[in-house]
Amino acid sequence: MKIIFAGTPDFAATALAALHQAAHEISLVLTQPDRPSGRGMKLTATPVAKLATELGLRVEKPATLKTESARGLVAEIDADVMVVAAYGLLLPKAILDLPKLGCVNIHGSLLPRWRGAAPVQRAIEAGDARTGICIMQMDAGLDTGAILLMRAIDIAKHDTGGSLMDKLAATGAESIVEAMARIDDLTPQPQDPAGVTYAAKISKLEADIDWSATAVQIERRIRAFDPFPGCETTISGERIRIWGGLATDGAVAAQAGIVIAVTLDDFSVQCGQGALRITSVQRPGGRRITARELLQSIAVIQGQQCKKR
Fold first, then answer.
1. By CB count within 10 A, which of 33, 93, 193, 291 is most buried?
2. What does the angle CA 39 – CA 40 – CA 43 come to, to the nearest 5 degrees?
3. What is the pLDDT of residues 223-277, one digit of tens each?
4. φ and ψ at residue 276, rounded to 5 degrees
């Protein structure tokens, strides 16, 4: 297959590596422009750009695909197919129509559930038992195209957004290689409109823990938002990021947000229903530490109020 590949993060780089190993002709790699990153805000190439460069592939970083120059860039390749994975830029119809077999997307959910920007995180947050990968024929809509191939995986009880993304990246890489090998035999299956849900882009405002939610909801969000953007609260006047929490019954009559128990190893906060036993945290500018380490350095006492910003 003569392929144009379009993607940006590690999730996409995993698929690019698999397609290259499968000996497809990857004639062009599209990725987002370099962005400032790190404490020094140094311009940094995307994971896909870094890998493509290592593999000796042609890399282009257009800021948009809506220009005539971008269309010409894609048209000159005369590709069989364009593979898209977490690219982050809209593909206009003028681009979608260029490859002989169209454009296919590696999407991290069991479509039509969780169309949109954050399907992996929203699946954990909602308490889904399963998710998966869809290889989808792209059209002008938002993840509305027909399904060419679907592979499901279980969501483990302790999966985070990061760990589940890694699992899906591996599944997506295997699935796109299989789809390319079987492309002439795959029958596109339209999505069932009755099952549509949307995975909205994650806002940093959502990271501020609302203790009036149930303990189960908060625990799921903490796992879903790990590693980004994390979940935070104010304890003893200090903003603390919560990385590990376990929902418990919390059978204490207390206002939501109140610290109801403190031990040597952890502390528990009353939620709207149940309580959250906190086991792993991070102080501003620091590393992840255990709740025990936190309790040795700041005064978290029973009866304190955990607050939003």
1. 291
2. 115
3. 999 999 999 999 989 999 999 999 998 777 789 999 999 999 999 999 999 999 9
4. -110, 120
**Buried b / exposed e along 60-72 (16+ C-beta atoms within 10 A):** bebeebeeeebbe
**Residue 106 is inside which H or E element, if any?**
strand 103-107
Residue type, 306: C
Side chain identity, residue 141: G
Strand partners, 282: 241, 288
Express each pLDDT in 7-66 by its tens digit. 999 999 999 999 999 999 999 999 999 999 877 889 999 999 999 999 999 999 999 999
Total Cβ atoms within 10 A of residue 146: 16
Q: Which residues pair with 290 in a beta bridge?
A: 280
Is residue 147 exposed (0-12), middle (13-18) or buried (19+ Cβ within 10 Å)?
A: buried
Domains assigned to the chain:
2-199 (3.40.50.170), 204-295 (3.10.25.10)
Q: What is the dihedral of CA 110, 51, 203, 170, to 10 degrees?
A: 30
Instruction: Please state whether the predicted TM-score (pTM) of the whole model is above 0.85.
Output: yes
Task: List, as one string, the DSSP characters of 211-273.
Answer: TTSBHHHHHHHHHHTTTTT-EEEEETTEEEEEEEEEEE---S---TTBEEEE-SS-EEEE-SB
Closest CA to 230 of 204, 256, 201: 204
pLDDT in tens, 189-205: 999 999 999 999 999 89
What residue type is 229 in one-letter code? P
